[in-house]
């Protein structure tokens, strides 16, 4: 259920987040057929407890997830030295413009003209990358050395962009050359450089907290006033990233033991074992919901502990 927020107009719901703009900035031109974010310079991004896997929203949600993801994103934005989309109002004090009903799981951000590229960086071989590697010794077309195992560290992080499909369609892996066609040579190069730099910086921070950042996805957009590229969306959360326990990785003798994850891999694994990806996905059992919530909480605790 999307909350009714006085003074704000709901304009869009993704799989996980609901977007609102100040009702006062809505004009007659903001019809539902146009870009709902066309005229508002700011947008309220409210994270729900919804969980998605294989591009399906599952039932039930993960209690507290929206708040955990928001706290994690805010923490990471603060750590990173790149321009981001936050407007300095996190809804955590009384003077905030963020409605109390969604405080803690909302970010007030500048509306960016989002680039239609999901900027994926992989430091380790797993998931769809591992599948492709077994078939062709490549990941998203990038050739890799022979003999790698599931969960192995790559010689260096690789940038494997995807095309951000419209709602309801699947994102599609694309070549770097295709990103040049989509956003131009300069922006494509900037997105790749920023993504690899943020991944390297974030990996070092994660490592200092006993965590491996295996892979992640960033979304960037252009500042509407200055054209500057800003980091948008959520960042380095357990929805957009794979995190593993560094200590378990060091001693694990099986892929499962090495990749003790702090992300929604629990949900993906359960779903893969209990659903043939036809029709409506089954309901998540209570213990999977609780295990996932516990892992998300532990990730936040580890990262933000002094
Ligand atoms: P989809 O957009 O396909 O629904 P999704 O399921 O990932 O993808 P959510 O993450 O739930 O969607 O919703 C967040 C939406 O807000 C995304 O479409 C994202 O690109 C967009 N977004 C994030 N930050 C900004 C911003 N600063 N300005 C404009 N749009 C933004
Ligand atoms: Mg998203």
TrEMBL record:
<dbReference type="InterPro" id="IPR001636">
    <property type="entry name" value="SAICAR_synth"/>
</dbReference>
<keyword id="KW-0658">Purine biosynthesis</keyword>
<dbReference type="GO" id="GO:0006189">
    <property type="term" value="P:'de novo' IMP biosynthetic process"/>
</dbReference>
<protein>
    <recommendedName>
        <fullName>Phosphoribosylaminoimidazole-succinocarboxamide synthase</fullName>
        <ecNumber>6.3.2.6</ecNumber>
    </recommendedName>
</protein>
<keyword id="KW-0436">Ligase</keyword>
<feature type="domain" description="SAICAR synthetase/ADE2 N-terminal">
    <location>
        <begin position="11"/>
        <end position="276"/>
    </location>
</feature>
<dbReference type="GO" id="GO:0005737">
    <property type="term" value="C:cytoplasm"/>
</dbReference>
<comment type="pathway">
    <text>Purine metabolism; IMP biosynthesis via de novo pathway; 5-amino-1-(5-phospho-D-ribosyl)imidazole-4-carboxamide from 5-amino-1-(5-phospho-D-ribosyl)imidazole-4-carboxylate: step 1/2.</text>
</comment>
<dbReference type="GO" id="GO:0005524">
    <property type="term" value="F:ATP binding"/>
</dbReference>
<dbReference type="Pfam" id="PF01259">
    <property type="entry name" value="SAICAR_synt"/>
</dbReference>
<dbReference type="GO" id="GO:0004639">
    <property type="term" value="F:phosphoribosylaminoimidazolesuccinocarboxamide synthase activity"/>
</dbReference>
<keyword id="KW-0547">Nucleotide-binding</keyword>
<comment type="similarity">
    <text>Belongs to the SAICAR synthetase family.</text>
</comment>
<dbReference type="InterPro" id="IPR018236">
    <property type="entry name" value="SAICAR_synthetase_CS"/>
</dbReference>
<dbReference type="InterPro" id="IPR028923">
    <property type="entry name" value="SAICAR_synt/ADE2_N"/>
</dbReference>
<keyword id="KW-0067">ATP-binding</keyword>
């Amino acid at each position: 259920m999307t909350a009714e927020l006085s003074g704000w107009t709901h304009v869009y719901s993704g799989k996980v987040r609901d977007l609102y703009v100040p009702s006062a900035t809505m004009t007659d031109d903001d019809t539902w057929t146009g870009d709902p974010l066309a005229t508002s310079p700011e947008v309220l991004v409210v994270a729900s407890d919804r969980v998605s896997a294989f591009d399906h929203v599952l039932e039930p949600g993960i209690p507290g997830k929206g708040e955990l993801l928001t706290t994690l994103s805010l923490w990471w934005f603060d750590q990173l030295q790149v321009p981001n989309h936050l407007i300095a109002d996190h809804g955590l004090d009384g003077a905030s413009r963020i409605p109390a009903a969604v405080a803690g799981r909302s970010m007030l951000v500048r509306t960016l003209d989002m680039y239609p590229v999901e900027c994926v960086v992989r430091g380790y071989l797993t998931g769809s990358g591992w599948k492709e590697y077994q078939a062709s010794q490549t990941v998203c077309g990038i050739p890799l050395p022979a003999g790698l195992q599931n969960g192995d560290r790559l010689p260096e992080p690789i940038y494997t962009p995807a095309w951000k499909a419209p709602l309801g369609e699947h994102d599609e892996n694309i070549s770097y050359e295709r990103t040049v066609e989509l956003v131009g040579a300069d922006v494509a190069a900037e997105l790749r450089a920023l993504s690899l730099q943020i991944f390297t910086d974030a990996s070092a921070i994660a490592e200092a907290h006993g965590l491996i950042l295996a892979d992640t996805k960033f979304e960037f957009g252009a500042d509407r006033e200055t054209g500057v590229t800003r980091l948008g969306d959520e960042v380095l959360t357990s929805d957009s990233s794979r995190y593993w326990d560094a200590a378990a990785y060091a001693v694990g003798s099986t892929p499962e033991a090495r990749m003790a994850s702090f992300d929604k891999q629990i949900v993906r694994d359960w779903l893969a074992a209990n659903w043939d990806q036809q029709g409506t996905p089954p309901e998540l059992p209570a213990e999977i919901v609780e295990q996932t919530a516990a892992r998300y909480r532990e990730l936040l605790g580890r990262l933000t502990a002094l």
